[in-house]
Automatic annotation (TrEMBL):
Residues 130-151 are annotated as: Disordered. It is found in: Membrane. Keywords: Membrane, Transmembrane, Transmembrane helix. It comes from Argiope bruennichi (Wasp spider). It comes from the Eukaryota. The chain crosses the membrane at residues 28-49, 69-92, 98-116, 212-232, 252-272, 284-304, 310-333, 345-369, 375-394. InterPro entries: MFS (IPR011701), MFS_dom (IPR020846), MFS_trans_sf (IPR036259), Proton-linked_MCT (IPR050327). Gene3D superfamilies: MFS general substrate transporter like domains. Its main location: membrane. GO terms for cellular component: membrane. Pfam families: MFS_1. Residues 130-140 have a biased composition (Acidic residues). This is Monocarboxylate transporter 14 like protein. Residues 217-403 form the Major facilitator superfamily (MFS) profile domain.
Length: 403
């Protein structure tokens, strides 16, 4: 990644906490939108990205399993917080009290993020020791000392070295201690005035590495992601309202649909993570199967007229979606390589964020026009299926345009 994971998570966590607090104090709808969409959204984005891309760096053989286990907590959160939020609103007789409690719960992540391991250079032991003479390569009377950085008479040079402890009991009388030092020329001070600006531009270029869009495979995946998340956003937002609109569930019963989604999400991430590491099918094929099931089930929403049916749909929908969440970073590693995962996943989140912000409002507009959620769900399922069809051409694109 381009920044330390711990730093990336800790600082935006305060923005997210302020977002919840701002929303709870707001009296205007636009103020709530500002608190939720800006502060909370940015905070979640900064937290989510390093949490996802740091896992594949430490695992190779069981990478999908590790990813499934690490992301399963979000499903448990959905299981618990849906009924908890309804209870808090009823307890405080207002949503503002529930938002304040949410602020306190979210800020606990600030403490937990301090336990993130610092990103370090992944260097094999034999590579780290390369260049250091072994006992067989040096005479018994040769001992090497790497000295601490000291000043030198030449102001344009700096001595780069450090001490290497030597057991003096093993030093033979009359032997010599060789000094290993290196001198690095310093850049003249007249050129340092340009460094901050150029460094900032380089940082921006690294963070917004749009060269990935020159990769045809990533372009296909980005178009798929836009279509998929345009469709996937509507069921997650409106399944609660669909149940109450069809008069097959009370508000409390409808909130349990979110809990069912949470259970399915957790189970799916763990099971599909384990399966992806052990199955003969490729991650791409597993991904495509889950997406087709997701899209087809969403287009069948008009057949629902009982509570158990919408509960079953919620379980199937979230199972397939949870599987894709756990496998997305694994698929990007397979398609683009581990070294491009951070920027690729960041751009993926950018594309899906834009798509999600458009998908749910469109379904709401269609409901206002038609008085039914069916058309919005048809559109959602159709976009998911069309996006999945694009994934089928990725192997052909890889063969035709190897990059």
């Amino acid at each position: 990644m381009n920044s330390n994971s711990r730093v990336t998570i800790v600082h935006p966590k305060k923005d997210k906490g302020w977002g919840w607090t701002t929303a709870s104090k707001a009296s205007l709808v636009m103020s709530v939108f500002l608190g939720v969409s800006y502060c909370i959204g940015i905070g979640v984005g900064f937290i989510y990205l390093p949490s996802i891309v740091s896992i594949p760096l430490y695992f190779e053989k069981y990478r999908a399993t590790a990813m499934g286990l690490s992301t399963a907590g979000s499903g448990i959160g959905s299981l618990v917080f849906a009924p908890l939020t309804q209870w808090l609103i009823a307890f405080y007789c207002t949503w503002k009290g529930a938002m304040l409690i949410g602020t306190g719960l979210v800020l606990n992540c600030l403490f937990l993020s301090l336990f993130y391991r610092d990103d370090g250079a992944f260097v094999k032991a034999n590579e780290a020791e390369e260049g250091i003479p072994s006992d067989d390569d040096q005479d018994s009377s040769d001992f090497y000392q790497i000295q601490d950085p000291t000043s030198t008479n030449n102001p344009d040079l700096i001595q780069a070295s450090e001490n290497l402890d030597v057991d003096i009991n093993n030093v033979v009388e009359g032997s010599r201690i060789n000094s290993v030092t290196s001198f690095i020329p310093l850049t003249p001070s007249t050129s340092t005035a340009k460094v901050p600006c150029s460094g900032f531009r380089k940082t921006v270029r690294d963070l917004m590495d749009l060269t990935l869009f020159k990769n045809y495979v990533f372009c296909v995946f980005s178009v798929f992601s836009f279509l998929y998340y345009f469709g996937i956003s509507s069921p997650t937002v409106y399944v609660f309202h669909l149940a109450t609109d069809l008069k097959i569930a009370t508000k409390l019963e409808a909130s349990f649909l979110i809990s069912i989604m949470g259970i399915a999400n957790t189970i799916a991430k763990i099971i599909f993570g384990l399966w992806a590491d052990r199955a003969s099918l490729s991650v791409l094929n597993i991904y495509i199967i889950c997406l087709f099931v997701n899209g087809i089930s969403t287009t069948m929403i008009s057949l629902i007229n009982e509570y158990y049916q919408i509960a079953l749909y919620s379980f199937v929908f979230e199972t397939t979606w949870g599987a894709t969440i756990a496998l997305t970073s694994i698929l990007l590693v397979d398609l683009l390589g581990l070294d491009k995962l951070s920027n690729a996943y960041g751009l993926y989140l950018l594309v899906t964020g834009i798509s999600t912000s458009a998908g749910a409002p469109v379904t709401g507009i269609l409901y206002n026009i038609t008085g039914s959620y069916n058309l919005g769900f048809y559109l959602a399922g159709g976009f998911t299926i069309i996006g999945t069809l694009l994934l089928l051409i990725i192997p052909s694109v890889q063969r035709r345009f190897p990059q």
